[in-house]
Every structure is written in structure tokens, then in C-alpha cells.
Amino acid sequence: MATTVTRRRPPARSRRSVSTGTWCRATGRAPGATDRSSCSGASAPWSTPGGEKVFPAEVEEQLLAHPSVADAVVFGLPHERFGEVVSAMIVPVEDTEIDLGALVSHLDEHLAGYKKPRHFFVRDSLERSPTGKVELARIKADASRERDASRQGAR
């Protein structure tokens, strides 16, 4: 008795799909755009100009593993040369101060260099919603204003 084996073909690479909406927007094919994708959200990666992917959740996990960090959110901020750099807004444990040197040393041990935040912003609270989400657009705008103000003060 002969047995027939049916094999399913894997989907063609050209049939990959990217969700549209607020989670991910492909920008690599627009005229004058760089070959990067702009993504937001804790589980969505974004690409660095070197092509490496950064998962904000992975960086947040390492930040939260540090004993002086109570809460953290990781996001990308625009950069003139690199397109976007990893940045973090952190909340210290109550009644403590964050030693950024110790935090950076902790991250050096656990993350690749391209995944480490280049900018840290310390806040009393991230003002999470009742569902635990952070308004990322507000966080990015606050961080961008603070970074620009510190640049103006340094001149």
C-alpha cells in the first residue's frame, strides 16, 4: 500500500505583511527616506542605522533589574547622524537617588553597546494609565524638549 505525503509550501517571502496603524510604519521606500522602519510600543523593535534591532522590552527588563529603578520606559529619540538613538525615562525607587554611573555599569554587563540608552531622563512618575500603558508620544515630546534645553544651556 502506497502512502501519499503532501507538503505545504512556506509562504513566499514577498508575501510578508506589516501591520499598519499606530504600531509600525514602514518608511524605507518614501522618497528621500532612509532605509529604516519607525516602530513604537514595548514589543515592537526598531532598527538602528547599522541594521541591528532593538527591543524596548529587553532594555526595560535590564533597567528594572537594577535595584534603584522602580519603573522605566525605553524609546527612540531623533538623532542627526544616527537617525534615532535609544533613550530611557526612569523612575527611582522611593526615597532613593539613581546613581547613573552604577546603572550604566549594570547595563554594560547585560546589554550590547547599540542597545544601551544614550539619554536618561529621571522622573517621579511615568503617569501610566489604569491599564499600565504609557503615552509614548508625550514621553518622547518631554524628553526631546529636555534634551534640546540641555543642549541650549551647554552652548
From TrEMBL:
Boundaries of every AMP-binding enzyme C-terminal domain copy? 58-133
Task: Return the annotated region ranges for Disordered.
Answer: 1-50, 136-155
GO MF terms here are: medium-chain fatty acid-CoA ligase activity
Q: Where is the composition biased (Basic residues)?
A: 1-16
Q: Which domain of life is it from?
A: Bacteria
From what organism does this protein derive? Microbacterium lushaniae
Where in this chain does the entry annotate a coiled-coil region?
A: none
Q: What name goes with this protein?
A: AMP-binding enzyme C-terminal domain-containing protein
Q: Known InterPro entries for this protein?
A: AMP-bd_C, AMP-bd_C_sf
Can you supply a Gene Ontology BP term from the record?
A: fatty acid metabolic process
